[in-house]
Design goal:
elongated, 67% helix, 5 helices
């Protein structure tokens, strides 16, 4: 009796391995989902691609790093406020340039001094 041999591409193998490593799906569920058989296929593929399942210590390190990286509500609120202030600053810079341009045009067209000259006494 011959065994049925399924050809599985390297792309699919890598996809299965990455799904196995990044989720809590069991090997049996992955076998059913992708339609392949074999008791240690996923282990061989992990070796082939140089990947390994992280141990409990590595998982705890990743989780603690993720907590440090994740931002608190106060940090998110401050970032939102900074973004709003930067937007307001850009608007004021644009307004200032527009007013300067209007003064330049008025001084040129109407030939009247509007800006205070430096060094003048009041």
């Amino acid at each position: 009796m011959k065994k049925k041999v399924n050809f599985i591409s390297d792309e699919l193998k890598l996809k299965v391995v990455q799904e196995y490593l990044s989720t809590d799906i069991s090997r049996e569920e992955l076998k059913k989902k992708y339609g392949f058989s074999g008791n240690n296929c996923i282990d061989r593929w992990m070796v082939k691609f140089g990947l390994s399942k992280p141990d409990k210590e590595q998982i705890s390190i990743y989780k603690s790093m993720a907590k440090e990286i994740s931002k608190t509500d106060k940090e998110k609120e401050l970032e939102r406020k900074v973004a709003e202030l930067e937007k307001d600053l850009d608007q004021e810079r644009l307004r200032s340039r527009a007013l300067d341009k209007m003064i330049d045009i008025a001084e040129r067209e109407l030939k009247i001094p509007i800006r205070k000259k430096s060094g003048t006494k009041q």
